[in-house]
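Minutes, project huddle
Topic: does the predicted pose make sense with uridine 5'-triphosphate bound?
PN asked that the exact inputs be recorded in the minutes so nobody has to dig through chat later. Recorded below.
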Amino acid sequence: MPKLNINYKKPIVMSIGGSLIVPNGGPDVEFLRSLKKLIDIQIKKGRRIVIVTGGGKTARHYVHAAEALRPNKIASEDLDWLGIHATRLNGHLLRTIFREVAHPIVIKNPTITPIRWKGKVLIAAGWKPGWSTDYVACRIAKRLGSSTVLNVSNVDHVYNIDPRKYKNAKPAEDMKWKDYRSIVGNEWSPVKSAPFDPVASKFAHKNHMEVAIIHGENMDNVQKLLDGKDFIGTILH
Ligand code: UTP
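Predicted holo structure (tokens), as shared on screen:
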């Protein structure tokens, strides 16, 4: 099983998939409860955590509404903006949940993320059209001097070859960026979804970063990853 080398002197950057925060009509309280417990334990260990929130299903409802009035004519940029605002709403929800320990402002622009902040937790959300919060998480990690990002979503592994094309695809414990990027390409599309966004992958590859792909339903497993122990998931490097 893979293991991530975490530098605890730097904040730990976690990108939390919106599909976990808002899987359908509204926020998943049980998931948020388990996330809060996880973060509280990590804080007690003296660690600082950056949480980047994905958008989840909220944007889909808004896109459907826009589609009803403007069929097949929604600009890709507007699809992204609806997504960005969904990520920001989730960011504010987490800022509310972590009020006592979190920096009071939800970060929207990763390039001006404070290097030091009051509290143990920093919350960030979507920035600009053209990528996902995976990219935002990588930008923040780089700015804070950390070379690792945890991608907690509803994907438990990356497959060694494209599972949409090959039936014999197997879950990989680790994978080189070169191989992963040959599957997902370089282009951003708000409707296509990959375990880790192609634009973020290009940035992470260029900056020699490691990204752990892990499912969020098993928080004991996420706790193991955060503690530098063997975990079930994939390391992209
Ligand atoms: P994410 O794709 O990061 O959220 O942002 P998510 O819900 O976790 O997505 P999954 O579960 O990984 O599929 C939602 C949408 O917001 C826009 C994109 O359209 C993205 O698909 N977005 C987000 C941006 O355009 N720019 C950003 O900086 C962040």
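Observations noted during the meeting:
- The mean pLDDT is 96.
- Residues 76-97 form the longest helix (22 residues).
No decisions taken; revisit at the next huddle.
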